Amino acid sequence: MLPVPTPSEKAKPDMGVRFENVSKSFGPVDVLKNVSAHMPSGMTTCIIGPSGSGKSTLLRCTNLLERPEQGRIFIEDAEITAPGVNIDALRVRVGMVFQHFHLFAHLSVIENVALALRKVRQMPKEAAEAKAAEHIAAIGLKGFENRRPAELSGGQQQRVAIARALAMEPKVMLFDEATSALDPELVKGVLGIMRELALGGMTMLVVTHEMRFAREVAGQVIFMDQGKIVETGPPAQLFDAPQTPRLRHFLDQVL
Question: For the chain, where are the E strands, in sequence order?
Answer without folding.
Answer: 17-26, 29-39, 44-48, 70-75, 78-79, 94-97, 172-176, 203-207, 220-225, 228-233
